[in-house]
Specification:
mainly alpha, 10 helices
Length: about 190
């Protein structure tokens, strides 16, 4: 029986041993009972937050630059001084649904997935000594008012925040690989 399966049976979550790690170990880690309970708790909190935000802010918030993003998304042209990426994002979701609320749902889900990926990556690699410290930190990240408000904001800030969380989690994964320095040396050149 391999070590990952032994750890699941004994309830240990220390899957990273002697620098050897596989993507599948992360998924095995996520299937452990404690992670399933935490994931369920986080999802319940996010559903409550979604309902709260939806009632507190029934319509997405806008900014004068929002019109430029929408115009560029409608015409699929580069216009103004803003980057075109968020306009493409709006255009993609407009093709799925013409409702402006669908963009809010998409941005919120993207934020949820990015946040949970970062939180479980941190727990997978750093093994917090006290679980309650991890949970307090996780709730501080989940309940961050700025990130939650940005999901209801028709600007690129929400997508940027979510991508930054994913980038941070990916950087943690790269640092814990054996060949991280090789990757950095080959891809970052002066």
């Amino acid at each position: 029986m391999n070590q990952a399966k032994k750890n699941i049976k004994t309830g240990k979550s220390n899957l990273v041993q002697k620098g050897k790690q596989k993507k599948s170990e992360f998924f095995i880690f996520l299937k452990e009972k404690q992670q399933k309970r935490e994931l369920l708790l986080f999802v319940v909190v996010y559903v409550a937050l979604f309902i709260l935000i939806r009632f507190a802010y029934p319509y997405p918030d806008t900014f004068p630059d929002t019109g430029n993003y929408v115009l560029c998304a409608e015409n699929m042209e580069i216009g103004g001084y803003r980057p075109i990426g968020y306009s493409w994002f709006l255009n993609f979701f407009h093709k799925i649904s013409s409702s402006v609320h669908f963009v809010f749902v998409a941005q919120f889900l993207f934020n949820v997935i990015a946040t949970l990926f970062l939180l479980f990556t941190i727990k997978f690699f750093f093994h917090p000594a006290k679980n309650y410290i991890y949970l307090i930190a996780a709730f501080l990240v989940i309940l961050c008012p700025t990130a939650l408000y940005l999901t209801n904001y028709l600007m690129s800030d929400s997508v940027f925040t979510s991508l930054t969380l994913i980038w941070t989690a990916t950087a943690i994964w790269l640092m814990h690989r054996k060949n991280a320095w090789i990757f950095i040396q080959k891809n970052i050149r002066p």
